[in-house]
Amino acid sequence: MSIDNLKGALPDFAKDIKLNLGSLITTSSLSEQQLWGTLLACATATKSPWVITEISAEAAGILSAEAFKAARAAAAIMAMNNVYYRSMHLIGDETYATMPAKLRMSIIGNPGVDKTDFELWSLAVSAIGGCGRCLESHEQVLRQAGMPREQIQEGIKIAAVVNAVATVLDSEAALASV
């Protein structure tokens, strides 16, 4: 189970996705924990059983148990936050911005790994979740922590490619079952 299995399963029409997935893994400027945590958090965010299984199996051999759990926690908390904050923004009534969310989010303050890594994973999941407020918030925290824009962009590229892999493979599985 691996990234190679995912690449091998992609059909010819998704050659660009396959090449991008390979390139992201082999040319990353992120630390190994940042890279694999981002891959795992994004796989979880796609909700694709195939992508989750393949990436989590490989990530489990690379990440510490704490980092593995934290990447999954980033996907979990952002699944909630992306819906909440995107909705508050889309309603268009700024009064909601002044109201406390009253949602537990303690994992963000104490994720069990380097806070910068957790913020990167949260940013990438927010790219998949499409929440502009979350993207802005996590990008600002990362920039304040000194992360270069190129690495922030890399996190978003990982999200885009993992999401595309899930879309293609899930659609192929659906067509095969018809």
Automatic annotation (TrEMBL):
<feature type="domain" description="Carboxymuconolactone decarboxylase-like">
    <location>
        <begin position="97"/>
        <end position="175"/>
    </location>
</feature>
<comment type="subunit">
    <text>Homotrimer.</text>
</comment>
<protein>
    <recommendedName>
        <fullName>Alkyl hydroperoxide reductase AhpD</fullName>
        <ecNumber>1.11.1.28</ecNumber>
    </recommendedName>
</protein>
<dbReference type="InterPro" id="IPR004675">
    <property type="entry name" value="AhpD_core"/>
</dbReference>
<dbReference type="GO" id="GO:0032843">
    <property type="term" value="F:hydroperoxide reductase activity"/>
</dbReference>
<dbReference type="InterPro" id="IPR003779">
    <property type="entry name" value="CMD-like"/>
</dbReference>
<dbReference type="InterPro" id="IPR029032">
    <property type="entry name" value="AhpD-like"/>
</dbReference>
<dbReference type="GO" id="GO:0015036">
    <property type="term" value="F:disulfide oxidoreductase activity"/>
</dbReference>
<keyword id="KW-0575">Peroxidase</keyword>
<keyword id="KW-0676">Redox-active center</keyword>
<keyword id="KW-1015">Disulfide bond</keyword>
<dbReference type="GO" id="GO:0051920">
    <property type="term" value="F:peroxiredoxin activity"/>
</dbReference>
<feature type="active site" description="Proton donor">
    <location>
        <position position="131"/>
    </location>
</feature>
<comment type="function">
    <text>Antioxidant protein with alkyl hydroperoxidase activity. Required for the reduction of the AhpC active site cysteine residues and for the regeneration of the AhpC enzyme activity.</text>
</comment>
<dbReference type="Pfam" id="PF02627">
    <property type="entry name" value="CMD"/>
</dbReference>
<keyword id="KW-0560">Oxidoreductase</keyword>
<dbReference type="GO" id="GO:0006979">
    <property type="term" value="P:response to oxidative stress"/>
</dbReference>
<dbReference type="InterPro" id="IPR004674">
    <property type="entry name" value="AhpD"/>
</dbReference>
<feature type="disulfide bond">
    <location>
        <begin position="131"/>
        <end position="134"/>
    </location>
</feature>
<feature type="active site" description="Cysteine sulfenic acid (-SOH) intermediate">
    <location>
        <position position="134"/>
    </location>
</feature>
<dbReference type="GO" id="GO:0045454">
    <property type="term" value="P:cell redox homeostasis"/>
</dbReference>
<comment type="similarity">
    <text>Belongs to the AhpD family.</text>
</comment>
<keyword id="KW-0049">Antioxidant</keyword>
